[in-house]
Design brief:
This protein has about 425 residues and is mainly α. Helix content is about 85%, strand content about 0%.
């Protein structure tokens, strides 16, 4: 009690405390010392009466009123102290061996936890609050940029670990796809369902024919030069063989120079562009498709297909190895540092994340609260709480109200004493 009075004196002297707190602390100090004086006055009056001295009526009246006020103050003060003291059980105190709070700390903790978990922390209210907070955060442009920057930084810090982790999975998937799709059955299916029908289409043959004619037209000058050389060689060889080598070169040169090769070029071009030539090329292409179809079913064709598939498989396997060993890390790095990718994340992914977050919180908040066991946490926290520290915390938080209770006890006690005096 004396320690509490010293604490109240410190509050009175502390100018940072509010005015009401300082006033009630001062009144509490006054009531304490007034009560001590009243008890001393009662003791002095008893001694005086024992020595044969009889106090006057006024003295007895003041003593009676002040004693009633002291009883009111001390009763309230003692009741407040008995909430916490004694902190530890005292065996010889049979009536009140321990304070109310420390003696019932476990029970208080369980009931407080149960009430908080069932009535204060309702899952739907917490979910709504969390959803509102998440929505506000994801709606804020600055917050979205912060979130993206944090994710980029996190992924960059663990980039090598991520690549090392996903590499075996990527390699396994690629190998499975390679084994699954590079097969003879898929090749035959591709030929029957896509390549052969496409080659048999009139539009395809028309396109290929025009490309062939265009290619031949482009190489007509080279074809004319080759034809000129071959004609000169043929005439020279014929003359030399038939006329025993008499002027073969001269005759060949004369014949070649006599021919209008520019006209030959135009003749070849005109011939290539004739409808008859176009029709012939189309027919050849159609025949070649049928011949190729038949050839694929021969032993030679099947062996060639197997060879092509093995070559394709080796090429794709090498490409996969190069991608995994050299390109995967660069691809991942390019994605991380791609402004376009992160703009997409901000504009498309985060808005979808809002709805998913709200749905997740609505569905899982109750589960989380059940797993957290708030009632048990509160009960354990109360059980671990040091009683002295808790008492000090209560005094700090409720000094004004406790001072008002004790002061009110003093006032009511004094009023009762005055009422008894008037009625007596």
């Amino acid at each position: 009690m004396f320690a509490g009075t010293r604490k109240r004196l410190q509050i009175v002297c502390n100018k940072r405390s509010s005015r009401s707190v300082r006033v009630f602390a001062l009144l509490e100090v006054f009531c304490f010392y007034a009560s001590v004086v009243s008890l001393l006055a009662l003791a002095a009056q008893c001694v005086a009466q024992a020595l044969g001295y009889s106090p006057g009526a006024i003295t007895r009246a003041l003593t009676r009123v002040s004693l009633s006020a002291a009883v009111g103050y001390l009763t309230n003060s003692l009741a407040i102290e008995m909430l916490f003291k004694p902190y530890e059980p005292v065996k010889w105190l049979k009536v009140w061996p321990q304070g109310l709070v420390p003696r019932n700390k476990s029970k208080i903790g369980r009931q407080l936890g149960s009430k908080v978990a069932s009535e204060l922390l309702k899952p739907e209210e917490i979910a709504n609050k969390l959803c509102a907070m998440a929505q506000d955060y994801l709606h804020d442009e600055h917050s979205k940029r912060e979130l993206v920057e944090y994710v980029v930084k996190l992924l960059n810090n663990y980039k090598n670990d991520i690549v090392a982790t996903v590499t075996p999975a990527v390699e396994t998937i690629c190998r499975k796809l390679l084994d699954m799709y590079v097969t003879r059955e898929n090749f035959e299916r591709l030929w029957e369902e896509a390549i052969r029908p496409k080659l048999q289409q009139s539009a395809t043959r028309e396109f290929m024919t025009q490309r062939i004619i265009a290619g031949l037209n482009q190489h007509v000058p080279q074809l004319t030069v080759a034809l000129r050389r071959q004609l000169a060689v043929t005439i020279r060889d014929y003359v030399n063989h038939s006329l025993l080598g008499l002027g073969g070169d001269t005759i060949a040169l004369g014949v070649v120079e006599f021919i209008d090769w520019h006209g030959v070029e135009n003749l070849i071009r005109n011939k290539l562009n004739e409808p008859q030539t176009v029709t012939i090329i189309k027919d050849i292409l159609a025949t070649q498709v049928n011949d190729l179809q038949n050839w694929l079913h021969t032993a030679e064709g099947q062996a060639k297909v197997e060879e092509v598939l093995k070559t394709l498989e080796r090429y794709l396997a090498d490409a996969i190895d190069r991608f995994i060993n050299f390109d995967l890390a660069r691809v991942f790095d390019s994605i991380l540092n791609s402004p376009k990718a992160w703009r997409w994340a901000q504009e498309a992914l985060i808005p979808k994340l809002k709805g998913l977050t709200e749905q997740f919180l609505q569905e899982k908040t109750g589960v989380f609260l059940e797993k957290i066991n708030i009632d048990e946490m509160i009960a354990e926290s109360v059980e671990r709480q040091n009683t002295r520290e808790f008492h000090q915390m209560v005094n700090d938080l409720t000094a004004e109200h406790l001072g008002a209770i004790e002061t009110l006890g003093y006032v009511l006690g004094g009023l009762i004493g005055m009422l008894q005096l008037l009625l007596g």
